[in-house]
Amino acid sequence: MSSDCTPSATGSHHHEEEEQPAARAILALADLFSFDIKDYFDETKEETTSKALDPLDETIKKTLEDISLPLESSLDNLVADCGSIRARFAEIQALIPDDLANTITPAVYLEQHQFKLEKAKQRIADRRERKDIEATIQANRQLVHEEKAKLDQLSAGPIQSNIDRLEARKIDLIAQLEECNAELDLEKQKLANLPNAVEEHKSILKSAIKNVADMTKSLKIIPGTDAQDIQAIEEVVQIRQRVVSAIQCYLSG
């Protein structure tokens, strides 16, 4: 379609039509001077400036607005198909200033940038994904270091020491339990034997009380005191002593 012509085809054709009269005019003016006036006078530029200053009619303005509006839509849609915008631009391309036409032209051929746009978006998405993955890797690395530190702290020595200590305590507690059970059984047996023991001790108590009572009844009433009786015995001893002394004295004389 004529509306889908490339910028090189349309733009170059348009410039060639305008540059040929300008070139002929410069050649005619050059004949009037003995030096090259191209360095001091550019009639093409003068004509372009004059063209840019001309006011645009309403139809062209409306077409430019129709071109501008879809250009504000999704960039993904534009790089997929700019045919309608390109067709509208072709209607006014020759009627607008060259600088404006040159500015608009790349926008009506955005399809050629579709691959670049998609790749750029994909790279941005890939970078974000990479950043998330790197953050996850960093977190996992930290976890690895923490777990490695915990692993380094683990040793069979302290664990075995705890096992040995607990085993020794277990043996001691079992011995204490056995001793406690033996004492418990003894106390339970005592409790079971308590009625018989009570009766036995009651019988012994009664017998002892009876013995005391019987002995109390057998007590004789003894007159005097030990001192008096000792004095009486001493008096007898003295009598005996005096007799023995008298006999010995008589025999020796």
TrEMBL record:
Residues 71-117 form the DUF1409 domain. GO terms for molecular function: transaminase activity. Residues 1-21 are annotated as: Disordered. Residues 1-11 have a biased composition (Polar residues). It holds the Pfam family DUF1409. Residues 163-194 form a coiled coil. It comes from the Eukaryota. InterPro entries: DUF1409. Keywords: Aminotransferase, Coiled coil, Transferase. This is Aminotransferase-like protein. It comes from Oryza sativa subsp. japonica.
